[in-house]
Amino acid sequence: MWTRTCLLIAASVALACAQQRPVNLDDMARMRSVGDPQCSPDGKFVAYTVGTIDANADKHHSHIWMASYDGAQNLQMTNSEGSESSPRWSPDNKYLSFTSSRTGEAKGSQVWILNRLGGEAQQLTAVKGSLESYAWSPDSKRLALVVEEPAPETKPDDPPKPIVIDRYKFKEDRIGFLNDRHTHIYLFDVATRKTERLTTDDYNEVNPSWSPEGTRIAFMSNHDPEPDRELDGQLYVAPAQPGAKEQALTAAKDYAEASRPAWSPDGAKIAFLEGDANKWGAYVQQRLAVVDTDAADDPTLLSTSLDRGVSAPHFTPDGKSVEVLVADDRSEYPALISVADHSVDKLMPAPVMVSSITYGQACTAALVAGDDHATEVYALDNNHPRQLSHQNDALFSQLTLGKVQEITAKSQDGTIVDGLLTTPPGYTAGAKIPLLLRIHGGPNGQDAHSFNYENQLFAAHGYAVLNMNYRGSSGRGSAYARAIADDWGHLEVQDLEAGVNQVIAMGI
After folding, report:
1. pTM
2. Would you give the end-to-end CA distance of the chain in angstroms?
3. Which positions ≥6 away from 437 have C-beta within 8 Å?
4. Are 216 and 168 in contact (CB under 8 A)?
5. pLDDT, tens only, 204-259
6. Which of 146, 448, 488, 188 is nearest to 326 (CA)?
7. I need a labelling partner for 307 at 20 to 30 A (CA). Which of 63, 114, 337, 496 fits?
8. How far apart are CA 194 and CA 243, in angstroms?
9. How far apart are CA 387 and CA 504, in angstroms?
């Protein structure tokens, strides 16, 4: 599916292939990270983020770019000394908004807007606290803001306060010690710039989603008396007005995951992701569920016939199906699940890695990755990828990459285990070379068909690199993921050993 092309040398209007070479350490800083694609309402453009590394300054920057849907243009929209993220289009197509902590009327990350007719970006919000996310209302007159309560004010010469641990979950990876400040949803009026709380309850609220007519907001929250001990929350809906009283659409037994709910086009149903009981917390395989917005019935599971985890639900325009992303044995692809009969229609063949799908009028785009190319933005024309962004093309045209192939092994008890093997550029099958076993950890998740810089760097230095999706990994079904629950260091070790033995038998 993927081909590497030569670079167009505009000056001579001729094609010339760059001198190819193996991956080196400096290429890590040269690679650009592409993310968060967003179709414009008219379907003519896709906004996205580009992250770059300044190795000399030891800094990372992120800016907003825009590609035309026909692929003819790629334009950088922001270029401040700071960074920008979370591009979003106003539904009336007048503004491209984003978040940034660039100097403005208020400190911290705020929402800024670019007028589609031109001009400099203007700061829109000035919230106190930490802005986590935001969403435009369908009429473009309001924003739903997710804001964490501000920290208590301190003076520069105040001594540091002691860390008091009085909750069950007190620490988290990449965050450190957790505070007791809550995250709430606020309504922001674009014209008056007035900010008001949606609800008055003192719970964490995340992932607001406006109803199609703009009069209601669905969101996820955990109202359990001991929220730190309950992994899942509930789905709520509230009138889109300050001081509203929310209504629960799911119960604690429904294990609603904290992902963004998706409204049906008529506003009668909401699709969400359902998890499982706490004891399976490390091995949760998210399932697709729908619930009527009048809360008359319990949620209906739609993905019962699909023993794979799903994500990113989105109703089709006719409301008859829900499109999701399916994590399936080293791949992730879009699929349609029928609301009526729960049938599953796989939309793209494996191997492929698709994420962050976005929709607009006559526009469907996503991030697409592969073994031999970096993640870029692609248009999905009838589910056929067509590349829109080209942030890493110049770099990859210089590189000679190692080959990535699928590996299957049989564990001690007969279980089939799958993985990926990366060999050096020009490797001759059967030749003995050093082998590295790279374990993905977790123990959930999976190694998949996306570009792996680390593996390619080792391959460039003559190593073979093996990645095995041992039991406990996602992408092989619920029983496969749960097989190591309460039994770490047993079956997964046998599975990893089986992969190593298989590669040794191949001559490496």
Report:
1. 0.93
2. 28
3. 466, 468, 496, 499, 500
4. no
5. 999 999 999 999 999 999 998 888 888 789 999 999 999 999 999 999 888 888 89
6. 448
7. 496
8. 14
9. 38
